[in-house]
Write a structure and sequence with these properties.
about 50% strand; alpha+beta; ten-stranded antiparallel beta sheet; Lipocalin
Amino acid sequence: MQAALNSRSLAAEEEITMARKIKSILWMTLLAALVSGFGGTAHAAGPNLSGNWTLNLAKSNFGKFPAPQSITRKITHDGAKLAMTIVQKGAQGEVTSELAYTTDGKPVTNKVQGGESKGSAQWIGDKLMIDSSREIQGTTLGQKDIWSLSADGKTLTIDSHVTLPNGEFDVKQVFEK
């Protein structure tokens, strides 16, 4: 009987010790995640996206949208400030847009042809996510862009998910320096 009680007491102590170790590991993991920026917080900086970028039509895919004749993006990226001039040429002429974001997730409003675009930009690891929406002729267009820069810094890929009242579409734009 005494041996059984001692055995139970030893098992209970081992259980408490194991629970303390697990709790300690969980706290260290949480602390490491907070310090490294994991857990949904925006990273302060990712790769620098500055440069003059030209669309490579052959590598891009516009899905159900008509492909433009050309797109160029002049991007200035300084710390959390991201500004760009986009020139798009197509069947209906040339359109130039000036957009500015901060990469800290704060909301911004940009003036675009026909109105305003509201959005935000933030780093998700080494990828930049720009989430935006705008009204076009009484219809809301939503767009989520994921920007990724190649290891050599010479190719910028923008994968976009576009949401319209009549459906959702994906577009891939590949730009080269």
